[in-house]
Write a structure and sequence with these properties.
The chain has 14 helices and 11 strands. Strand 6, helix 4 and strand 7 form a beta-alpha-beta unit. The model has no long low-confidence stretch (mean pLDDT 95). Helix 7 runs parallel beside helix 8. It folds into 2 domains: 245 residues, Aldolase class I (TIM Barrel, Alpha-Beta Barrel), CATH 3.20.20.70; 72 residues, Non-ribosomal Peptide Synthetase Peptidyl Carrier Protein, Chain A, CATH 1.10.1200. The chain is of the alpha/beta class and 328 residues long. The strands form 2 sheets. The protein has an 8-stranded parallel beta barrel with strand order 3-4-6-7-8-9-10-11, surrounded by 6 helices. Strands 1-2 form a two-stranded antiparallel ribbon. The termini are far apart.
């Protein structure tokens, strides 16, 4: 049984990665329904929280059905990060996650996200102060290092564990790689297999098929995997992975009933969270993926992305239900 503090996650949990403009409450809800064991919010700016910026504060929204869930935040100033702990805990997550992995220029070049990998002592000090302030478990997500000349994850993992983090997720690239090239899993396995390590270690990066998860499970000894881009438009991926892990067989592609169930659930939660029309507009980016591969789907999809009324969208869903039940 993998545990983060007192949170029980099963024997080989599948985590939904925190992804900007993706991991919002409606999307997390459908991932939870389809097998995600632990989820994180989109990453939240500590500066935005201190300023009470609307966009940052809204990202604190979590719902009981999502648990267990962690709120992830980032920043380059120790005092600001520490002062955000109380704000985050008031939102009621199950844990707090520090983003030391975001590679984008606007974050990293301010010494936040993966930028702090250039200053490991500061990274350790910031984490230690956050752990002291928090009453919830604190976890960290990071990368192998800043670049190929500073792959220091083995040392970083030990130091972060020693000051009290409860789990560590590692993306198998350096900041310099961004999202290019292949993720390297071997250094993550080396961290996990270090006899000094006691906390859960989760592997992240290039987890795109159930076969890859099975290979990681069989060969690397990590406690679970964090799934990011493979889940975008495909919340079924979590159940597909679990089914393959335990049976060696692939689940069939989701039937039209399941695709429509997810679409309806996602739409309803999007409307509720975004308070109406904006929720409908936000949903448009998901239809293409949810109905990918269905024959003659373009006509339905083109209508869905133009409609601005939930009742009219439901009528299209009903048409699709009837059409594909006959066509299949």
């Amino acid at each position: 049984m993998v545990r983060i503090g007192t949170i029980e996650l099963g024997d080989f949990p599948l985590l939904l990665a925190p992804m900007e403009d993706v991991s919002d409450p409606p999307f997390r809800a459908v991932c939870k329904l389809n097998g995600a064991d632990l989820m994180y919010t989109e990453f939240i700016s500590s500066e935005g929280l201190i300023r009470n910026a609307k966009k940052s504060v809204q990202k604190l929204d979590i719902y009981e059905e999502e648990r267990p869930i962690g709120i992830q935040f980032f920043g380059g100033e120790i005092d600001t990060m520490v002062n955000c702990v109380d704000i985050i805990e008031e939102a009621g997550p199950d844990l707090i996650d520090i983003n030391f992995g975001c590679p984008v220029k606007g974050v990293a070049c301010r010494g936040a996200g993966a930028g702090i990998l250039k200053d490991v002592p500061k990274m350790v000090k910031m984490t230690a102060e956050i752990v002291k302030r928090a009453t919830l478990p604190v976890t960290v997500k990071t990368r192998l290092g800043w670049d190929e000349d500073s792959v220091n994850i083995f040392e970083v993992a030990e130091r972060l564990q020693d000051i009290g983090i409860a789990a560590l997720s590692i993306h198998g690239r350096t900041r310099a790689q961004m999202y290019k090239g292949s993720a390297r899993w071997e250094p993550i396995a080396a961290v996990k297999n270090n006899p000094r390590m006691r906390i859960p270690i989760f592997l992240n990066g290039d987890i795109t098929t159930p076969e890859k998860v099975k290979f990681i499970y069989d060969n690397y000894g990590v406690d679970g995997v964090m799934i990011g881009r493979a889940a975008i438009g495909n919340p079924w991926f979590f159940n597909e992975v679990k089914h393959f892990l335990y049976t060696g067989e692939h689940l069939p592609s989701p039937a039209i009933e399941e695709r429509l169930h997810v679409s309806r659930t996602h739409l309803a939660k999007s409307i509720k969270w975004k308070e109406g029309r904006l929720g409908i507009l936000e949903m448009r980016k998901h239809y293409s993926s949810y109905f990918k591969g269905l024959p003659n789907v373009k006509e339905f999809r083109d209508r869905l992305v133009r409609l601005e009324d939930a009742d009219e969208i439901e009528l299209v869903f009903l048409e699709m239900e009837e059409y594909y039940s006959i066509a299949v």
